[in-house]
Amino acid sequence: MATITSHLPNVKSILSNQHRSHLQLKPTTVRMTMTTQQTRNPHLHWASLQADIQAHLKSSITIKQPLEVFEPMHHLIFSAPKTTVPALCLVACELVGGQRHQAISAASALLLMEAATYVHEHLPEPKPKRKPKPVVNHVYGPNVELLTGDGIVPFGFELLARSDGGENSERILRVMVEISRAVGSRGVIDAQYRKTMDTRSDGEEICHVEEIRRMVEKYEGGLHSCGAVCGGVLGGGSEEEIERLRKFGFYVGMIQGMAQRGFNESKEVDEARNLALQELKFFKDKEVDTIKVLLNI
Known about the structure:
The protein has helices at residues 36-40, 42-60, 67-79, 85-95, 104-121, 142-161, 169-183, 188-197, 209-234, 239-260, 267-280, 289-292. By secondary structure, the chain is an all-alpha fold. α5 runs parallel beside α7, α8 (188-197) packs antiparallel against α9 and α9 packs antiparallel against α10 (239-260). The protein is globular, with a radius of gyration of 19 Å.
């Protein structure tokens, strides 16, 4: 099974914030500490991670003028289905000894990227195709949703860039590079293209296991790998820890992506689960119960 690798530049500075932001960043009251009950119950811990990401986003992205821009954006961001990628970013940060507040903006940016991806994949169709698709409640027209989806992506990078106080510029820029690669032409966009090319004119998807596996590698595999790496980087993990997290995230994404496409009992899923467990053995002296939950979703 292929893994995702990257070669990151040694950058010593980040883009300067010379222009006034369009994001309204307010002081948040997000819960950033874990109770004893949460540490003992991994599922409660995951719930608290998800809640913190939502709270951070809601305090950062508000509905304001011009309403024709911010109302659709707010709706599309918070109505998109949630995945485990953003929370994986936080739990990876904690696993290497960091605090979740160090990675909360990266986790939020990842959620925005996934929301934009979802919007682009579920634009209103003028003529429904023969094969029924999942019901999506379209509040806005295709032109508004398309342009809004495009606008969500730079907001994600802006949110991440503005989270830096000047001390973690290299880490922030490294994370921005990771996210760009995961959602770009070699990642999610490539997977979307493959899906389009593997669909007949009547809307019926052609199922080739090998092609599906390659799409999952680029999509869920790449996004989860990216989320885990971002958390490891911002939590101050070593290069070995970050690369272990990269592989672990990739295998988690493979498990989830293949299972979502009906291959939850396939050879690929079993192999990915075993390989993910092997990566976690590197963290034998750390608390891995929370991140291990992902192998059983």
